[in-house]
Amino acid sequence: MLSEKNAAGRRLDEGVSEPMTTHGRYTASDSSFAQSTGNAATKGLVLIAVAVVIGFLLLWQGGVGGDSSPEVAAADDASIDAGNEDASSGGTDDAPADDGSGDGDDAALDEDSGATTDTTPVTPTTRPLGEVKVAIANGVGVSGLAGQQSELLKTAGFVTIAVNAKNNTELSAVYYVDGYALEAEAVALELGATGAVLRPATSPEELVADPNQIEGFHIFVILGSDRVLG
Question: Does domain 129-223 sit in CATH 3.40.50.300?
Answer without folding.
Answer: no
